[in-house]
Design goal:
This protein is an alpha/beta fold. Helices cover 41% and strands 14% of the residues. Bound molecules: zinc ion (2 copies).
Length: 286
């Protein structure tokens, strides 16, 4: 039986952004749902990077607990030349166009992985593609998997070093790829019956002038909401984002962006709480 939330009561116990091991998270979709339920989360959106492979299992798992699972995804997209993340919520996971769109993203990601491996070989590393793929398992391969592979191959002694020397911005493994434009991501989510949320606006290393520009462009592309509360954002930044959202008639969203256990600052359902306002996207989704 799926849980029917009572929004007035359950609103404060929602989390609309988290990751399973179908992308770069630690827990399986089922473990994630179990943990969320144990932490008191009542409404959870699973939003893996560029894949919805975990949604069916998570939905199944949610039926055993008093928790509603909202289908979600975090799409990699471009705003101009910058990579941004668009969280999709409440779409039909069986939508064929969405599935094709995700298939294309997987192709882009796999090609990028091959290019990263080749670049690292050129820099004197062993060929780490196989190892990185094995580490990604069923999930989407990304730079964190190469970082782990480099540690395992003793090229570096920590993932942080792998990023600062080989994989981070401007380094050999920082391969620029043509992700779809943000407007394509938004259009795809809409045609699948879902909503598009601009993820964590303060995490792109932009000035607030640029953040406001990005929010305006997102609204111009028909986006629906902006994340205004998540770990690491301060109240002043939240306020500025809320003002920008209001100016462009955008709704608000919030979530933990949980990836793994073992960090006190990162937990399912844990982020600066938002008052239950009509501007919250949950009012649209439910
Ligand atoms: Zn993100
Ligand atoms: Zn995320």
């Amino acid at each position: 039986m799926s849980y029917k939330p009572n929004l007035a009561e359950d609103f404060a116990f929602s989390d609309l952004h988290c990751h399973s091991n179908c992308s770069d998270g630690e827990l399986s979709p089922r473990q994630l749902v179990e943990r969320a339920a144990d932490k008191g989360v009542k409404i959870l959106a699973l939003t893996d990077h560029d894949t919805i492979d975990g949604v069916a299992d998570a939905t199944q798992a949610s039926h055993d607990r008093s928790l509603m699972l909202i289908p979600g995804v975090e799409l990699t997209a471009l705003w101009g030349k910058r990579v941004v993340h668009i969280v999709g919520l409440g779409f039909d996971p069986d939508n064929p166009e969405l599935q094709m769109y995700l298939c294309n993203l997987k192709k882009i990601r796999d090609q990028r992985a091959e290019l990263i491996a080749a670049r690292l070989v050129k820099k004197g590393c062993p060929d780490l593609l196989g190892k990185a793929k094995a580490l990604a398992g069923e999930g989407q391969i990304g730079r964190p998997h190469f970082a782990q592979a480099m540690v395992a191959a003793r090229v570096v002694d920590s993932p942080a070093k792998a990023f600062s020397l080989y994989l981070g911005a401007g380094k050999p493994g920082d391969i620029k790829v043509e992700w779809p434009d943000m407007s394509d991501a938004i259009a795809c989510l809409h045609q699948a019956g879902g909503y598009a949320v601009l993820a964590h606006p303060t995490k792109y290393k932009l000035t607030f002038t640029k953040i406001r520009e990005m929010i305006a462009a997102f609204a111009e592309s028909d986006g629906d909401a902006v994340e205004a509360r998540y770990p690491g954002i301060d109240p002043g930044q939240t306020r500025q984002i809320e003002i920008a959202a209001q100016r462009h008639d955008l709704l608000l969203s919030a979530g933990s962006d949980f990836h793994c256990t073992g960090f006190s600052w990162s937990e399912l359902g844990k982020y600066p709480k938002m008052p239950n306002s009509e501007m919250h996207i949950l009012h649209r989704i439910l």
